[in-house]
Amino acid sequence: MKRVEKTIKLNGDELHLQYENGKITVAISRAQVSAAKNELEAGLTPDANLLSGTVTVQGDNVIWTYQRPAETKTIDELRKQLSRVEQLALLSNLAQLEKFEQSRVTVLIHPNNLVFDESFVPFVVHRGLRDIVPPKTLTAEQLLSQYKAFVLYVIANQRDFEQMAQGDFNRVRRTSFNQSIIEAADFTAVKAFVDKALATERERTRATNDIVPKRRYRFYRYGFYTALVAVIALIGVTVYFTAFKVPFDDRMQASQKSYLSADYDAVINDLKHDQPAKLPKAEQYILATAYINTEGLSSVQKKNVLKNVSLQSDQNYLKFWIYNGRGDFKQALSLAQYIGDNQLILYIYTKLYEEANTNTSLTGDQKQTQLAKYQKLIDSYKKKLGGSANGLSK
């Protein structure tokens, strides 16, 4: 495994984690640590939700080395592979970390500081000791904010985790589920919303799996009677239907059912692995509408955008909103430029600016270069549109 550097900036702490060959190391300046080595080892007490590790002092730094089990994955390695049920099950398990609220050991619920096993059990990588090792504090409010941010990071596919963990939810799509998480008063309430959504999604999945479309039944009956005269052809058709056509039809059916019940998050989840260009136009419309309804726009802006969305809309316009919703801003920009819509172009440049501004993998110089480039383009298109803030009518 190649070396991967990850950074955490939260609540005044800045930690740098190095993932490499089954080990994760964290180096902290001795000036930030208020204890002797033997006391630091107290933070390595075994726990079902903590990785095992060692601590050493090297020059001016204290080095923690944690053992990462081979079967574990980070949330960024997992979240694009998980079904909606699996996402919610993982988030329900994450509530196990509430036990550290009153503990001497302090934890950070952060995408870069957690790994999950095959049962989605969470393991904290680096942990601190109250008043001794960063993170030196852990309040109920901090733990709640981190849990909310992690839920939205996974379910709403948000990238700006650290902003959300500081209470900034301005960019979060305002679905009923997301709003419930944002407004939850305490950790228990967030867990309750997650568990309720998990139960609902499990039931919806079960009901969908119980449906056997008539066309599938006709196909298998036809296959039985023609097997003797067309074995080779039948095998080819069976493979196609079993591996591709039937699952595709099931996803289309599920997305339509979700759309009719205005469950836009479920629509997005149902079609998350489908390429926009390969969707029938009706599904492109359904998915684009779902993304618009969950976009971080004002009610007036959503109303204005939805006026231009229908089954008769240009497919490139529908695909623009799908790629935008999926966070593929460069593909969305390409479509906006092809359409020639300056409002959409400006809107995407504001998204690209925000993405660069929250991208912790960029160096300071790289970030400033990208921000300057996008700001120049934003100013240019604002001028063309008479000073519009982001290209969309208020």
UniProtKB/TrEMBL annotation:
Top-rank lineage group of the source organism: Bacteria
Q: Give the residue spans that cross the bilayer.
A: 222-243
Q: Which UniProt keywords apply?
A: Membrane, Transmembrane, Transmembrane helix
Pfam families xrefs: YukC
Q: Which InterPro entries match?
A: T7SS_EssB (IPR018778), T7SS_EssB_C (IPR042565)
To which protein family does this belong?
Belongs to the EssB family.
- The protein depicted here goes by the name Type VII secretion protein EssB
State the organism named in the record.
Answer: Lacticaseibacillus zeae
Gene (UniProt): essB
